[in-house]
Amino acid sequence: MNTAAHLFNERSRLYQAVRNFFYSKDYLEVDTPLLSPFLIPEAAIEVFKTDLIQSSRIHNPEFSMLEWYTVHADYQDSMELTEELFSFICDYMKINTLISIGGERINLKTPFPRISMNKIFNNILGITLGELDDYNHLKQSCLKHDIKVSSDDSWEQLFHKLFLSHIEPNLPKSKPLFLYDYPRRIPTLAKQKPGTAYAERWELYIAGIEIANCFTEETDPENILEFYKGEIQRKKQSIVNHDIDWGLLDFFSHFPPCSGVALGMDRLLMILYEITHIEGVIFSPLHDIVR
Asked: Which value, to the nearest 10 degrees, does the dihedral of the CA atoms of residues 173, 178, 181, 182 take?
């Protein structure tokens, strides 16, 4: 029975399993600061004064994130390592690899299927990413699928509307899914896949829920500088401006090839124990803090 006491005990065991896994592979655990004078200039990262983001079934403004970075590795290597991690967690915690989420039966046994963004768009909507690269074609596709379009929507905004409304809800759910090779036009610090219009990036979905995000990290200072410039322009619409850490450019001038993964621990625990709402696995969810 998933009582609060049981789930919080399992949360502790999940953290222990993760540590044991990475220690066994000689990874170094570090504590990142909660306070910093700088932020990376990603337009999606906001600084708030008194605003609170509302919670939902899979969102809480305060959450736990595991990140790991592997030098001399790319996003394909990180897929394999992530599968190893899942197998280790299920064995350590004695998790049944056949679970049920929202009425869907899901098999957590590795390996997980992999499908490119181009193929999933073609499978679900009958359209390729090459066709959607044209703004007008993308706009017409949104209108065709009853998506509200604003005159000032950027290509990226239209793409996300189409993805979130028609692709994400229809992803295969029988097993965890690696969705890889995202359009390069979506600005991130993921390295470009040579000779293509794609970025070396994947997201892991389980039961239609995004669990993890991975890049082959961009390490070319010139490409990072161009990313900085673009994101700084986008952040001019932010609620609160903040300083940028320009020293990161110097850091990457001597950095080896690397792949990084960010995994949502709360969502993972939700899935492993078939919990329907993220507040069921967090010690102090938003509704307990703000009355």
From this structure: 60
Residues recorded for the chain: 291
Tell me which residue of 30, 134, 63, 128 sits closest to 285, measured CA to CA: 63
Q: Identify whether the C-beta of residue 275 lies closer than 8 Å to the C-beta of residue 100.
A: no
Give the pLDDT score at 232: 77
Cα–Cα distance for residue pair 148/164, rounded to 1 Å = 13
CATH 3.40.50.1220 fits 4-112+173-289, yes or no: no
Residue 19 has pLDDT above 80, yes or no: yes
User: Residue 165, by phi and psi: left (phi above 0), alpha (psi -120 to 50) or beta?
Assistant: alpha
pLDDT at 286 over 70: no
Q: Cβ distance 269 to 7 under 8 Å?
A: yes
Instruction: Enumerate the CATH 3.30.930.10 domain ranges in the chain, comma separated.
Output: 4-112+173-289
